[in-house]
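Review form for a predicted model. The reviewer records the input and the model, then writes brief findings.
Reviewer: anonymous (R2)
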Amino acid sequence: MHPTQITLLNRAAIAYGIAGFGYLCFGFPFWFLHAVDAPMKGHLITPFLFIKEDFINTFDFWNELLGTICILIGAISLYQAGEPTGMGKRRNLFVVSIVGGIAYLLGVFFPVPFAPLGAFLNALGMLLVGFGSWNVQIWTGWKRIAPLLVGFFPFIFMFPFVIIYGARPAPLIGLWGIPWIVLGIAAWQRAQELKLAQA
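Model under review:
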C-alpha cells in the first residue's frame, strides 16, 4: 500500500461522483419539467461522422464535457491504483473503459458514432472489471458489485430501448448517474479503509 493509491482512489471517487451528478442533471428536465428530447443540431461530415453545431454556450454541453472527462479520469485513476482488480494482468481490463472514456469525450463533439460507442465500451469495460475482480476480493461487501451496477445498467435499461424504438431513452440515461455515484462511493470508502489500515 502506498499513499498514492489512496489519492488515486479519492480522485476516482470524486470524478465518478461528479459524472454521476452530471447524469442526474441531464435527466432532471425529463423527469420533472416535461422536457422532450429534441434532435441534435449539426451535420454529417462523412456518412458515419456527425458534428454538433451551436453547442458551446449551452449548459448541456459543459455538463456533458465535464462528465465525460470525469469518467475518463475515474477509469485511469482506478487503473493506476490497481483497484479493484489488483496490479496484475487483470488491471488491463480497465483498457476497455479507458477507450470508452476517450470515445465518450469525442462524442461530446461528434455524437455519431462516438457517443453510443463510448456508452457501450464504458458499460462493457465495467462488466469486465466487475467480473474480473470478483474473486480477487480487494473490494469487499457491497463495493464488489459497484462496477457491475455501472456495467449492467445500460444493457438492461438503455440499449434495449435504442434497439426497439431507434431513439435514446433520455430519462433513463439520466438514471445511469446513480450507479456512477455508487461506484464513486465505493472507491471513496475503499480509500478510507486503506487510510485506517495505514494508521
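Findings: Residues 100 and 120 are 7 Å apart (CA to CA).
Further findings: The first helix runs from residue 3 to 32.
Recommendation: see findings above.
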